[in-house]
Structure prediction request, 415 residues.
Amino acid sequence: MTAPDLGFRRARIAVVGPFPPRAGELSGQTELLCRLLQEEGAWVQRVNTDVPGVRRLPGIGIHLLPIAQVVMLCWRLLAALPRSDVLQVHAASYWGFYLPVTLAWLFGRLGRRRVVVTYSGGMARSFVTRSWRLVVHLLRRVDGLAATSADGQEILQRYGLRAARTPNLLALEEHPLLARTQWPPLLLWLDELEPRANPAMALHALAQLHQSMAEARLLLVGDGSLAGEVTALARSLGVAGAVAYRPALTERKRQDAIREASVVWRTASEDSLPQVLLEAAASGAVVVATAVGGVPELLDDGVDGLLAPVDDAAALAQATLRVLSRPFLAESLATNARISAERFTWRRRRASYAKLYGLAAATGGPSGEEHIDHDDGEAHDDVLGKTEFLWSDPRLDAGDEPDDGRPAGRRRARH
Prediction:
């Protein structure tokens, strides 16, 4: 069935935010939105808030970056303004909020363009609470406001800001569901190594899991201020040999790692609706995460994932042990999670975006979603053996290939 035309073909939209190769989930979301809008026939211009050349300068780059970002973003907005009717801002917290929102609002007002802000900050609660006066001052002046989770909506509503909900999007065809005949104890943790992400909880949980399942291995991916502490903690807990650490992965290896993991952990003390959990749910991994932010909107505890209290490593370890020791439970959670992930496809959300852009009223159900059956499309080839080395030998560099990457169990793509 052909989707109704909601006015995208006549739209000229400048998407403002970080773009690849900038690391992080927000850059992936901005690029995905641009692709989806272009597939709808919209004219799209990418306005990057990052300046990669300055960021890479050794020593001084990090100090020059804020000035360079302001100068370059002003130039890019000025160039995009004559060819755009809507400025769509993807905002995070702190500098990732002030930089794009302030400049997009100023240039939008200058050019009399519609400015809409999608706020997806993982630190929304602490940021908005601390800086609510300035946040409210800016957001009350934009033409459209959305949050990526109901939790984010509630935080903004406390300060009198009404926001629509446009969750993170998922290109389901890029994440085929892999049915498993075995559930090897391969765990994945992917986040920033910052206090908010609480990587120490993952290491403590791994240490407790080893008491019952000594063969469990953890691939820990991320970079940040806690990198040194995480390495030292792994040694002190006696699990350093079971942890493979990577500061970052290429996009292809990141997707492969998510598909290969039996369990994906998320241990944050404050979060939004993490993209990695959407991708894990779509790919057939079981998600075990802390019940914070927008995570409970994706996962119903015991139905399509397992939730643990914040900073409760014992609960995380026990939930993981249940999954790995009960294949029927793991299969049930993974299958239900895939169904849950289908709610975040473009077909279900395009009407909400059209309404946010002022193109057309939302159509379909009472929430403005289009309830269209989704066809998973072509299956991926078997990727097992291409990424298992990430868990099996922590000494390998990120770009190394394994000498012998034979898998412990076979998988097949589910049609």
In short: The mean pLDDT is 86.
